[in-house]
Each structure stands twice: as C-alpha cells, then as structure tokens.
Amino acid sequence: MRWPRAWGGQRNERGEAERLLMTTLVRLTADLVALLHGAFVLFVALGGLLVWRWPRLAWPHLPAVACGAR
User: How far is CA 69 from the centre of its chain?
Assistant: First the structure.
C-alpha cells in the first residue's frame, strides 16, 4: 500500500503486513482468554448442576469453586 507523501511518504508494505498480523493475533488471543474466562465463571456458578448429573466432575469443580470464592 502506498501512502501519499503528505502522510509520511512510502511505507514498508512488509511492515504493514506484520503489524496487521500482530494486531489480529493479539485480538484473537484476547478473544480466546475472554471465552475461557467466561467458561470458567459459568463452571464455577453452574458446575453444581453438572456434578449432580456427573459426580466425577466434583473433583475439578471443588478447586474451581475455591479459586472463584477468593
């Protein structure tokens, strides 16, 4: 992409592509972290219902509740 000289002249196309890639990776990583956090909060809040159906889930649910209660 070529920029007009008033905007600082020509810019490095490779640098722009790398910036776009890094921005995309940062956004995808942030979305993934938010999704995992939401899943953890739901598991802490509603995991008791899952434990009622599948008792083996009590083992990961108990530490999650302990961590969520802090």
Answer: 22
Closest CA to 63 of 47, 53, 55: 47
Is the separation of the CB atoms in 23 and 29 below 8 Å? Answer: no
Question: In angstroms, what CA-CA distances link 67 with 7, 43, 64?
Answer: 51, 12, 5
Could you tell me if 37 and 51 are in contact, meaning their C-beta atoms sit under 8 angstroms apart?
no
- Please, are residues 64 and 40 in contact by the beta-carbon 8 Å criterion? yes
Q: How far apart are CA 52 and CA 35, in angstroms?
A: 25
pLDDT tens for 29-69 read 999 999 999 999 999 999 999 999 999 999 999 999 999 88
